[in-house]
Amino acid sequence: MTKDWIAVASPTILLTSLMAYLIIVGTGVRVLKNKPKDPTKKDPAWVRGLVIFHNVFLVALSLYMCGGCLLEAYKNGYNVWGNEYNPKETAMAHYIWVFYVSKMYEFLDTFIMLIKNNLKQVSFLHVYHHATISFVWWMIAHRAPGGDAYFSAALNSWVHVCMYSYYLLAVLVGKDEKRRKKYLWWGRYLTQMQMFQFFLNLCQSVYLLAYPSYPKFISQILFYYMISLLGLFGHFYYSKHVSPKAIKAKAAEKKKQ
Questions:
Q1: How many other C-beta atoms can be found within 10 angstroms of the C-beta atom of residue 189?
Q2: Which of 51, 82, 135, 175 is most deeply packed, by most CB within 10 A?
Q3: How far apart are CA 240 and CA 234, in angstroms?
Q4: Active-site residue 235, yes or no?
Q5: Do 236 and 120 touch, CB atoms closer than 8 A?
Q6: Coil, strand or helix: which one is 201?
Q7: Distance in angstroms (rounded) separating the CA atoms of residues 49 and 43
Q8: 84 vs 1, 91, 135, 147, 188, CA distance in Å?
Q9: Can you tell me the distance from the alpha carbon of 11 to that of 9, in angstroms, rounded to the nearest whole number?
Q10: CB of 226 within 8 A of CB of 198?
Q11: Burial level of 105, CB count in 10 A (0-12/13-18/19+)?
């Protein structure tokens, strides 16, 4: 269905974008690694404006993709899982294609972190996820943009509605610790939501391997990819919220207050 659509027929556009992304990120990290960051310095107005626009746009786009996938799934009488790809479902193919292309736009997440010199955020987990997810969705958009792909696209889009809303709120709240604690307390639950999403996708891949209704090689890729993301996000969650070091840091923060 999408074979003649932009960035689908050939992986050239995607691979070029990925190469540029990795070169920019690698160069940016090397340049900024030895550049001290002043935590009290405010971002320029244009950076703040860019971040606000970026997050508002992705909240709106994610709502559009989530709603579109769910609406088309309802119209086509889908089950939760076990739906075959039908080339005649052009509207669903459109939403899957938009979702795939959005993964390349989301490279801007990392570029904004570099502009703000937030190197701690440019972790292996972050770069790995951004670089690999786009290629996974190119395969889906190229081979079977519909059927059970709707579930991952709709679920991830909803998680991104919440995630980019959180990032937008973080910009608007500013660096005041009391305000951040008041309005951004739900950050750990956002990570839990992301991990639960990966768990559901893993369960879906197992179901599709047991009861084939979608291309087997994509289900196999989904299975191993979700295991990698659960492992990486689980390590991140443990380090930030559960480890003795994290608990000790939170206790010290409470004493200061």
A1: 11
A2: 51
A3: 10
A4: no
A5: no
A6: helix
A7: 10
A8: 14, 15, 21, 5, 36
A9: 7
A10: yes
A11: middle
| pTM of the predicted model as reported, rounded to 2 decimal places | 0.92
The torsion angle over the Cα atoms of residues 63, 69, 71 and 73, rounded to 10 degrees, is: -160
**For residues 157 and 118, what is the distance between their CA atoms, to the nearest angstrom?**
25
Structure tokens at 186: 């739900």
Per-residue pLDDT of the chain (257 residues; tens, 9 = 90+): 777 889 999 899 999 999 999 999 999 999 998 887 776 678 889 999 999 999 999 999 999 999 999 999 999 999 999 999 999 999 999 999 999 999 999 999 999 999 999 998 999 999 999 999 999 999 999 999 999 999 999 999 999 999 999 999 999 988 778 888 888 989 889 999 999 999 999 999 999 999 999 999 999 999 999 999 999 999 999 988 888 887 776 666 665 55
Catalytic residue among 54, 126, 129, 142: 129
Q: Tell me the HSE value of 35 on the side-chain side, using a 13 A CA sphere.
A: 11
Alpha-carbon dihedral angle through residues 146, 152, 158, 161, given to the nearest 10 degrees = -90
Q: How far apart are CA 134 and CA 99, in angstroms?
A: 9
